Amino acid sequence: MGRSAVLLGSRRKRLLVSFDGFRWNYDQDVNTPHLDAMAREGVKARYMTPAPLPPTGKYIENHGVVHNMYYNTTSRVKLPYHATLGITEWWDNGSVPIWITAQRQVMLPQPHRLFLLPRGNVTYQGAAVTLSQKEGVLHNYKNETEWRVNVDTVMQWLTKEDLDLVTLYFGEPDSTGHKYGPESQQRKQVVEQSIRSNHLSSVLSLIVTSDHGMTTVNKKASDLIEFHKFPTFTFRDIEFELLDYGPNGMLVPKAGILEKVYSALKHTHPRLHVYKKESFPVSFHYANNPRVTPLLMYSDPGYIIHGRINVQFNNGEHGFDNRHMDMKTIFRAVGPSFKMGLEVEPFESIHVYKLMCHLLGIVPEPNDRHLSTLLPMLRSGSALLPSSQPLLVMGLLGAVILLAKVA
Length: 407
Fold this sequence. Notes:
CATH topology of the largest domain: Alkaline Phosphatase, subunit A
Mean pLDDT: 78
Number of domains: 2
Number of strands: 20
Oligomer: single chain
Low-confidence stretches: 1-10, 112-116, 198-203, 384-407
Number of helices: 11
Largest sheet: 8 strands, mixed
Helix content: 10-25%
Strand order of the largest sheet: 6-7-1-20-8-17-2-18
CATH superfamily of the largest domain: Alkaline Phosphatase, subunit A
CATH architecture of the largest domain: 3-Layer(aba) Sandwich
CATH class of the largest domain: Alpha Beta
Shape: globular
């Protein structure tokens, strides 16, 4: 693997890798020597606050991907997560992810490829990547053999095929965190395994981050948020519902009774926060989009929203208010573009889009943030000098936004 890395050309090369659900402190109770070395030799953030994906540099209400699953409130159609990954109209909302921007600009005519990337099989404004591999419905994210094969394939693309931009996705430690809970021994083991098993060469420049954290689910019967047990609420008043997807929910009341439904729900549970669309907290950067329903809600960390029946039994969950520490993620960066031994204050992951454009030497699409936040971590001239090593970015491309992924 070391020899393969040396073969990489002098053009800027970027490999984006996602470790799904890597909470900011997952490296503190297990042995992660590679992350520790990155902190010593490069840049480390105390933690990073997750922002919406895909990586367009925009908040949810501006890029329009407001949920993990496709839905239509008029037809009442709802599609599961894996089916949604192939619905172009859900993802293509006038914003394009960084890999499409890169293809359109200086990196052409070099081909760009995506490997095992969620949403990699859809087009944006008619543009598609050269190659993408879809996840199967029952895809096993814990297959260590597959991890090794995938990394070998990516290294071939970067070396023998001399590609400029490749992305790679790992579904762990998210799946284990959902099943066993974020404090479980199983989760601790898979974090070590995830870092160790990717066996990406130490000569690569790296950015390691993730899409969200994970918190333990409260399963005490008296604390459950169960819509089917609320005495003042009835589903007969509802035209469309989107519940049972973690800590978030949406409702379309029947005509003329929005106020009735809102009044019935707003004080039903101390851990449930129900809003009319126009009153939803602006700080979430979420509600100002036509896809968002007239009533929406979220629950406190650790509390899951159950609809008509209880169908969620995860021990760990995400998608809660990203101000909560369990939702924070990691950020490490090391390589020729980054300063050494620097610890920076926390920042939002939405800034990383501008950082990537800067490092790739491309002009970013219109976006909601600016590069100045992350410039202090870069060496002088970092975007102007061609690197003799590829940049490896772990974690911009995991599961979706504020809303919980269907595990």
